[in-house]
Amino acid sequence: MKYLFYLFIGLLFPVSVSAQGLNIVDFGAVGDGKTDNTEAVQKAIDEASRKNTTLVFPTGTFMTGMIHLKSNVTIELKSGSVWQAVPDLKLFPEIPSNADLSQSGGYTMSRRAFIFGDNLENVTLTGDGTIYPSGDQHEAFPMLEENGSKRPYGIYFRNCQNITVRDLTLTNSAFWMLRTYLCDNVRIHNIELFNHANTNNDGMDIVDCHRVHISDCTVDSADDGICLKTEAPKGTEDVVITNCIVSSTASYIKLGTGSFGTFKRITVSNCVLRPTRATKIVHGLGYRNGITGLSLMSVDGCDIENISFNNIVMDGMMTPIFIRLSDRHKVTHTEYNHHPITAGTIKNISYSNITATNIGSVPVNITGYPEHYVEGVSMHNCKFEYNTAGTVKDLTSEVPENSKNYPYPKMYGTDLPASGIYFRHVKNIIFDQVQIAPAEGDPRPAIHFDDVINYRGENVLVDYQDIKKKQFVIKNSGKLKAGI
Fold first, then answer.
1. Contact 235, 208 (CB under 8 A)
2. Are 79 and 56 in contact (CB under 8 A)?
3. Which of 23, 15, 10 is nearest to 54 (CA)?
4. For position 329, what pLDDT does the model report?
5. Ramachandran angles phi, psi of 89, nearest 5°
6. What is the pLDDT of residue 105?
7. CB-based burial, 37-68: b 16+ in 10 Å, e otherwise
8. Could you give the CA distance from residue 72 to residue 289 in angstroms, rounded to a whole number?
9. CB 181 within 8 A of CB 107
10. Are 231 and 206 in contact, with CB atoms under 8 Å apart?
11. Taking the chain, what is the end-to-end CA distance rounded to the nearest angstrom?
């Protein structure tokens, strides 16, 4: 009798937990690429969270508006499944900031998102399917040069713990594709990400998060590829980025520009940085091969410490390595005004086994500002090959401090008076097995030192065709030991 009773209940209530968990079709979702399934998918997620189980998207194209994720749920997109945003701005309401500045600061601008998780734990997005936020539907999500509030993030996690995004294809968001903010224990693995649909099309933005693993991902984005930021006092710490292929028409891997808290204990290893596969360039500056390869920027008062780059191969981009310490001191939003902003620092930065080829005309540049030094930069077994020469004018052009300006290699109004590496306001540099191959016909010296204290170079090779050309220029500097 018990068996018959449970069989009868199952016939009345067919939505149940199977070996694979729940299926969105059982909640009324239709994968025809036309039906708005927002209500059905939200109900399915709520139920999967209540039962602490997996929710499956089967083959088909399932359209929704904004979806609120819930704790203790795994969402699996099966092969052939597409989760697509309905191109209708009304279905993506603004998300209040809910910033608690007394505790951790907060990103106080309201935003929108396609898939949103707030104050959650134990959430996984996975599978062989595709998440497509419809960012190329410009009538719904207009192209704006500024960070417009009418363009939703693709996936946005805020104040979350134990978040995993893995094995998925993420394509064409209206804004940044994946943003994690004030989160801990984040794992992003084996993602295929392509984001060339709109302006400000970053790939991944990890903001004020701790204990983050990004591995085995392919990222190709119109704006920054993998970008770490800090927009609150919490800072971004304990991050590993490894085994990734990254392309960008802006910065490939970047710490900054938002730099309010701290960047500490971060490693980037075993990565390939290469030009984009996109056929149409949507970034406003129009640099097909990208602007910077590896960038560190403390411009709003943050401390950057103990950062390591190892086994990186780069091709293209204007500038392979860019470090900038300055005092832009941009207050992200007015609510930060009561937080004191002090001078930032950049210390203990290591580059090893780096190869960069087909570099543009702006050299590696590592700069602080007067009386504020970048400290402790080491390079071991690094090679830089340039394919675009500077000009004679660059030799005598004034290099302004411009410490309040937005940091990027063209911020000085000149390509800098060095063909390989430009240092200004830097302490304690160690070079070992560094090779510089300037572009043919470049009149500039290989390395320019300006206000540099304590440099030691061993086995530094400059591959000039004209061996009589001056290789080093030293200004306002002391205690330089060039074992070259």
1. yes
2. no
3. 23
4. 75
5. -60, -30
6. 43
7. bbebbbbbbebbbeeebbbbbbebbbbbbbbe
8. 41
9. yes
10. no
11. 90
CA atoms within 13 A on the CB side of 74: 12
Could you tell me if 198 and 223 are in contact, meaning their C-beta atoms sit under 8 angstroms apart? no
| Cα–Cα distance measured from residue 324 to residue 424, given in angstroms and rounded to the nearest whole number | 10
pTM: 0.92
66: Cβ contacts below 8 Å, ≥ 6 apart: 38, 91, 92, 93, 112, 113, 114, 115, 116, 152
Residue with tokens 């090679």: 383
- What are the 10-residue block averages of pLDDT along the chain, 484 residues in total? 41 49 97 98 98 98 98 98 97 80 47 95 98 95 72 95 98 96 97 94 96 98 96 93 97 94 97 94 80 96 96 97 90 52 90 97 96 97 97 92 91 94 97 95 94 93 68 82 54
| Euclidean distance between CA atoms 22 and 14, whole angstroms | 11
Is it true that the peptide bond before 257 is cis, omega within 30 degrees of 0?
A: yes
